[in-house]
Amino acid sequence: MRREDLAALTAACAKCGTCRTVCTLYPERKAEIAVARGKVVLVEAAASGLDGDAEALQEALSDCLLCGRCERACPNQVAVEEIVMKGRGDLAEELGIPAWKQVVFGKVMPSAGGKEAARAAAAASQKLFLRKVPTESGLHYRFPSAFGQSGRTVPALSGESFLGSLPRGEAVRGEVLLFVGCVFDHVFPQVGRAAYETLRLSGKGIAVLRDAPCCGLPALVSGDRPSALRCVEENVRRLSEASPERIVFPCGSCLVMFRRNMLSLLPKEHPLYGDAVRVADRCEDYASFLLETGVLSRLPAPREGERPGRIGYHDPCHLSGTLGRGGEGREVLRRAVGDSFGEMKGADLCCGYGGTFNIRDYPTSAKIGQNKVSVAAEGGTAVIATACSGCILQMRDMAARTDPSLRVVHIAELVFQAFSSR
Length: 422
Ligand code: SF4
Ligand code: SF4
Hints:
By secondary structure, the chain is α/β, with parallel strands linked by helices. The chain folds into 3 domains: 93 residues, Orthogonal Bundle (Fumarate Reductase Iron-sulfur Protein, Chain B, domain 2); 187 residues, no CATH class; 122 residues, Rossmann fold (3-Layer(aba) Sandwich). It is built from 23 helices and 10 strands. It has a 4-stranded parallel beta sheet with strand order 5-4-6-7, sandwiched between helices. The protein has a 3-stranded antiparallel beta sheet with strand order 1-2-3. The site of one iron/sulfur cluster has 15 residues, from helix 2 and helix 4. One iron/sulfur cluster binds next to helix 6.
């Protein structure tokens, strides 16, 4: 462990226990080790050389959704997410990274060709091995119980990615760059398309990076700093070359990687540090861009007749919590769907996805997620709209498991639909 770095971060903790009262995981684990205070104590012990069990510490730090609720509630502003991520990175260096993660984060995610090949292979194998489940929120495939996934459903992958569907020569240059993100390019290409078409309504030139690597967040939260750094360096180089005035993100998790985590990965003496700061300054969320450029003021008033309040907004932890951009998504919905939008019950409850937490402990992730969508549905929400790829993946799975009539969409899809139908 890099003791001095971590000791400086953990020193701020007063052991007050406020974090326990808000922790998403505590109600499931009922154990101090699950909450921020417990993790801080363990990291402090390891950083001072008192506890030598690196594997137990890795297990404790992996058991966290990185939802940030503890950090936001902490009276001492302890940087819990940074402590957990730094600890995971240090321990991965010490104990090694599993082979499958090395392939996914080191080979597939940093390469556009790697991602394309992985999507094609996944699309072919889900037809062969998984069972089709038609639901209101789109066709899904369900894992057979033999796969040990407790009925997990995944979206049916389409034949073509969003970027692959753009004609050559289109969206090559523009003062605004749409950073689509891996999931909205490959898994939900309709979201990539909706974001692209609605950004174009601003009248500004919209460009895309056709061969962008992943933002690097999945690698970073897994402790694989070298792969995360590779993604960051490549993105900073390409975005600096393209030099857009603004970079717009439909996914809150990609945005938090660029606005916050990217700079913690690059030391100040790194040759790309200055470029990275300039890139980070230009990054913004999809909803803020639409509101600032007045796109929605061109939308005719919504038709009457839909049940008021049936469409709700889910607060993605990274976008609403960490970056404080929850009001913008709601305002976009208000303008796009009128009084069909209503404040959703449990809007700020974490969906339980937590990046690799969903793979590490699917039953607990699903329990948290099923509670989330059930609370929303019981409160009268029929459509959950949001702006983060991980939340959409998770809540569609949860809806398919608990209430197949519940739809989960990106706000861009509703905006695009509103413009297309009026
Ligand atoms: S709320 Fe903050 S200061 Fe209090 S125990 Fe938790 S991490 Fe420490
Ligand atoms: S980030 Fe979330 S899950 Fe992790 S300790 Fe904090 S509140 Fe609990």
